[in-house]
Amino acid sequence: MRIYTRTGDTGQTGVIGGRVDKDDARVEAYGTTDELNCFVGQAIGFLDPERDADLMADLLEIQHEIFDCGSDLALLKQELLPYKVTAEMVDRLEAWIDKYDAETPDIKRFILPGGSQASSALHVCRTVCRRAERRVVTLARTQPINEEVRRYLNRLSDLFFTVARTANHRAGVGDIEYVRSAEVFRRKS
Q1: CATH level 2 (architecture), domain 12-105+116-172
Q2: Among the listed residues 44, 23, 42, the one whose alpha carbon sits nearest the alpha carbon of residue 32
Q3: What are the sequence ranges of the domains in the chain?
Q4: How many CB atoms lie within 10 A of CB 175?
Q5: What is the pLDDT of residues 11-55, one digit of tens each?
Q6: Which secondary structure element, helix H or strand E, spans residue 176, and what is its range?
Q7: Angstrom distances, CA of residue 122 to CA of 82, 103, 183
Q8: Contact of 128 with 157, CB cutoff 8 Å
Q9: Which of 26, 34, 52, 168 could form a disulfide with 47 if both were Cys (CB 3.0 to 4.6 A apart)?
Q10: Whether the predicted model's global pTM rises above the 0.85 cut
Q11: Is 130 exposed, middle or buried (0-12, 13-18, 19+ CB in 10 A)?
């Protein structure tokens, strides 16, 4: 099998159900999820395999689900295939957020990206995830999408924030607080 096909040389690419321009909002949306997936893989590489085995397994599952997001976003018409991203996947992300948040100290101020290498990489994942969500919002203004993808990406960015803090905590590295902020968060209940 050849990797190159030459079919994109004219500035179009194939999606599920047709061809679109390479700068189409649909391609921007699923392309950004692909970029996010790369950064998640990089972040996994910065985690400690013994200490963070659970986190690594969850992030690997997320990589598969980000690929599912891209697949749903590449679908021109929902009638062609069933959507892959579901409300249950969003619910599970919320459960993981709660689980990992319980490991971390109370947050009082905004947190700057940084600390350990793993945490820094997970904060990059958070910001790329937010950009992917924005691209999906743009796409949804003009074309049909699986609404669960938008919800999933919204919750996923919250998970990345939480696991970035978890990675720091497990590594014995404190979060970097934004010192020019007043205390803006209440204690966990």
Answers
A1: Up-down Bundle (1.20)
A2: 23
A3: 12-105+116-172
A4: 21
A5: 777 777 787 777 889 999 999 999 999 999 999 999 999 999 999
A6: strand 176-177
A7: 31, 16, 24
A8: no
A9: 52
A10: yes
A11: middle
